[in-house]
Amino acid sequence: MDQADSLNADRAIQHNHVEGRSSKIRNWSGFWLLGLCNNFAYVVMLSAAHDILTKQQSDNSTSLVRIQPILRNSSNSTRYDCNPVSTAVVLLADILPSLAIKLSATFYIHHVPYGFRVLFCVGATVASFLLVSFSTTMSMSILGVVFASMGSGLGELSFLSLTAFFSRDVLEGWGSGTGGAGVAGAFLYSALTQAGLSPRVTLLTMLVVPVAMLLSYFFLLAFPPMFPQWRRLREAEPRPASLSSLITSEDRASGPLSCSEKLHVIKMILKFVFPLGTVYYAEYFINQGLLELLYFPKSTLSHGEQYRWYQTLYQVGVLVSRSSLRCVKIRTLWVLALLQCVNAVFLLSAVYFQFLPGPWLVFVIVLYEGLLGGAAYVNTFYYISKESGDREREFAMAAASVGDTLGIALAAITAFPAHSYFCSL
User: Fold this and answer.
1) Is residue 238 included in any domain, yes or no?
2) Buried-most residue among 46, 207, 249, 257 (CB within 10 A)?
3) CB–CB of 347/214 below 8 Å?
4) How many folded domains does the chain comprise?
5) 3-class SS at 270?
């Protein structure tokens, strides 16, 4: 009898170990898909909205759709091949609603259950694809971009907060998925349109993305038994730790943080958020304010091809570094911010003095720029998750998501005068 009990106990331990390993794989994969789906519309809208608008403004528009805005100079009065309007215009529509949501929702979003948040994100993404697909006016297209921004902003805030209920390695999956969204969004949009599909049909086929988000969240993730899916977090019962490596705490069930506690958490994470915001400010100032001006007429690549490669290599760098958390962890985030600022100053000088002989060095710098940006993102949230307490972790992850968005918004605003200045030379 004792031998049978021992055998049953061994089988139970083995079963729990397999179940825990299975949950880890499911959760890592689920957060990877959530990261991909959440950022996918944001990436695609930067190009698709422009393509639809171009078609609206030209009845005989039959050229192949490009990932980047059409860059041309309407006169010979400037030494740069300038677009009449900076590419930062669409970026502002794609980032300001997200910033507004993150700045405000951080303080009240805990009243909204996670299930309803995900449904809102999915609905906003579907609305964005439909609005831009069937748009007949500029305002309708911009409204579609705004919906994509709202869904992406609330999604990032919510899913980063959600990682507080799981083992820390799901941050690797989330970071890698968000990096993959840039490459996948750019590649699929370019491939489908170049294969002959119109921008409208291409966007309609991408409605599969919000469906994938629903499936990933509701059917792939292995939630704790008492996870408050459709009710407020404060109603959750205390739950024991499980072998599926889900991080739980009785403290988290004791109620939301007070205002003073939230301010304390914000002060604590500033040492991480400030370098992250600086990295993204320099990064997007380069991408939206400088890259369209780094054109080399003597190159065998056209202006459009050069710009396309700039964006592609940047996204590859982001994907690689956002997937590197398991191999490399960087605690000194200010070093990444300093290096990214050096990139911005160097390329700003290159635009003004025009001393670079061709685009090849720019290709290398842009790839390096993406590596720095992706590394700053995943390491920021990893160390915030590691150094914050169980009760503060959920709010800390949500509040920190403001850092990169604020940096991007400030970069888009600064890109306007920079673009006007250089194009007036």
Assistant:
1) no
2) 46
3) no
4) 1
5) helix
Give me the domain span that covers residue 198: 2-233+247-423
Contact 277, 417 (CB under 8 A): no
CA distances from 282 to 12, 403, 409 (A): 53, 13, 11
| Average pLDDT for the chain | 82
The span from the CA of 154 to the CA of 26, in Å, is 23
- DSSP string covering 49-93: HHHHHHHHH-TT--SPP-SSPP---SSSSSSS---SS-THHHHHH
> End-to-end distance of the chain based on CA atoms, in angstroms?
91
Tokens of 416: 């306007």
pLDDT value of position 237: 41
- Predicted confidence (pLDDT) at residue 232 exceeds the cutoff of 80: no
Output the six-digit token pair for 40.
């996918």
* Contact criterion met (CB below 8 Å) for 161 and 394: yes
* Residue 162, phi then psi, degrees to nearest 5: -65, -25
Indicate the SS3 state at residue 87.
Answer: coil
Tokens for 384, please give them: 């915030």
Q: 234-257 burial by CB neighbour count: b if 16+ within 10 A, else e?
A: eebeebeebebbbbbbeebbeebb
- Give domain status of residue 239, yes or no: no
- Nearest residue to 93 via CA among 56, 40, 147, 131: 147
Distance in angstroms (rounded) separating the CA atoms of residues 341 and 106: 29
Task: Give the 3-state secondary structure of residue 156.
Answer: helix
Confidence category of residue 48, pLDDT binned at 50, 70, 90: low
CATH code where residue 115 lies: 1.20.1250.20
Residue type, 368: Y
* pLDDT over threshold 60, residue 121: yes
